[in-house]
Design a protein that fits this description.
Length: about 240
């Protein structure tokens, strides 16, 4: 290219200010627009999807490495596996799968499938540990209490309360560094309520956020105080 020729301007995708492509210009243009708030919400979603597709193999490889380590060495994961085994279940690397997810969630549990870990949403090994522990609580509840997942919001609310309380995802340190929650009092309970309400609200049987909060409140006392299979809140 001669000295008086200009570099081509990056092509903008619609009105989102997202520039598609993996070349140097597109990559840094997107980074700067994100950093300075010049990309729309739709542009951010497009950027994230492109990044997740680009990093799919490496994200899943890291997730699988963390999963395998935690299955062998994490106290809470080993404890939950043992208690699930006592109920006739078996969770292992073959049915705890790392996948790229299009939804903003870190994982999920489905009785006939096992656990899915959303590799593109997991920040570090600690996040993987919290997510596996959360989904293992669901697996335990499914076996121990015969949870009706599709048509009983009270069951869904109860297992979400227990999973958030017992997995460690609502401990103060994690909320402080990842959610910017600075409260010292009632933070633990507020985190559990928030997560349980969001999860229930996303179910098709739930009318809206108000309905979800009402269901969570109805089962709160019994489910929050039920720490089985732990003697008390572990983390």
């Amino acid at each position: 290219m001669s000295g008086d020729e200009k570099s081509p301007s990056p092509e903008i995708q619609g009105d989102s200010n997202f520039v598609p492509g993996d070349d140097f210009t597109a990559k840094w243009t997107n980074y700067f627009r994100l950093a300075f708030g010049r990309m729309t919400d739709d542009g951010y979603r497009q950027w994230k999807k492109a990044r997740d597709l680009r990093n799919d193999a490496s994200d899943c490889a890291k997730c699988e490495k963390d999963r395998d380590y935690l299955l062998n060495y994490s106290p809470i994961i080993r404890f939950m596996r043992q208690n699930i085994n006592k109920l006739g279940g078996d969770l292992h690397s073959g049915n705890i799968r790392c996948r790229r997810c299009d939804t903003r969630q870190s994982g999920g549990f489905e009785p006939s499938y096992g656990i899915v870990l959303c590799a593109n949403e997991l920040r570090d090994q600690g996040h993987v540990e919290d997510t596996i522990a959360h989904e293992m609580i669901h697996a335990y509840d499914h076996l121990r209490f015969q949870v009706q997942w599709t048509d009983n919001l009270r069951h869904a609310a109860c297992t979400e309360i227990r999973a958030s309380a017992l997995s460690g995802e609502c401990r103060w340190v994690r909320e402080f560094f990842t959610k910017g929650q600075y409260k010292f009092t009632q933070q633990f309970q507020e985190c559990i309520r928030r997560r349980a309400t969001i999860s229930v609200a996303n179910r098709p049987e739930c009318k809206d956020d108000v309905h979800a909060a009402k269901v969570v409140n109805e089962v709160w006392d019994s489910c929050f105080n039920d720490t089985r299979p732990f003697d008390e809140v572990y983390r």
